[in-house]
Each structure stands twice: as C-alpha cells, then as structure tokens.
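As a warm-up, study this chain.
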Amino acid sequence: MRALPVGDDALLVEVSSGEEAQALHAEFLQRRTEGSLSVREIVPAARTVLLDGLADPARLASELTTAEVPPAPPRAREAVEVPVRYDGPDLAEVAAHWGVTPHEVARIHAGTEFSVAFCGFAPGFGYLTGLPPRYDVPRRATPRTAVPAGAVALAGPYTGVYPRSSPGGWQLIGTTDTVLWDHTRVPAALLSPGTRVRFVPVGNA
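Now compare it with the structure written out below.
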C-alpha cells in the first residue's frame, strides 16, 4: 500500500488490485462512520482510493505505510436486479471472442453476480466486476460516436450500463430500460461502490 499526497489536504492510496481497493474503501467508510477518520470525500477507483479533506494527511500517510490491506468486506444482502435484453450489436463478436454461442454469452452474463467496484465516466455509471478473467474482452478498435442510454456493455474485466447517450468504445451485448441516474431520486444514482448487481434476461434471451 502506498499513500501519495494530493494538494494540501488529500491522499491517494494505491493498492495492487481492484479487490484490495474495494476492501480499503469499505474500511475508510467504516472509520468515518465510527468517527475515527475525519474526511470530506472518499472516492474509490480501479486500484486507488482518494481521501479528500483530511486534517492531517501526513499522519495518516505514515500510518498507512505500515498497515496491511483489510480483509474484503461482507457483501450486501440484497442485489439490484437489472432486466436486460441480450440484443446488442456486439453480441456475436463477444461470443466469438469467448468461443461460445450468443445464447451462451447471455447465460454466462446473467448467471454472474456482479459488484460495483467504483463509479465514474458519467453520473450513474458503475464499473461492475464479477466475470472470470477468461471473459475479459478488448474495447472496440473504433469507438462509437453515440451509444444509447441503457446499453449493457463489456470492456476488459468490467460490465457497465450507459446511463445516458454518449460516445463509447465498449462492446455492446444488450439493452435495459432501467434508469441508472435520476436527479429526482434519492440517491440519484442507482448503483454505488459495493452494490451487488444481477442481470435478469427478458425478451428472447
């Protein structure tokens, strides 16, 4: 674990894997709840956790340098279910990459329980992990100029759902009508780090 100063009152804590970042994020949230960590924001990413608004970042950095990454947190009890039609334009390409049929892609994907590792890219977009490494897929060589809202997509080790129309280079395997970001909802984001997610096939999947 490595803690790097960011400005006057923040630290970027680096670890060696996404699983460790998730565990560290959960640990910092717990410390803040208990009152043993005073911090304004805790922001997880692929292999880092940013702590912003620390009163004494140097002291915490010294503590973290000799600390061990905490064990993985217990999983939340209820999973968010996302209905999905496995009708994406890249479904056949992903099937070929995996060496299976398109129907089998849907079965494997829907049979996996995912967890939100971190959020970013766009409001409401979660980077979901859960598929074994053998199912990693490359991004498209040429990104699309517009990916529709609700597109269910794969890239590298992650699954994601586009919360709004935007450019994107992920492989599109399905679509959902689930609203990922709604500013009138509390909280506005359906997904947050640590949320369990299951995709439920609908239609002809």
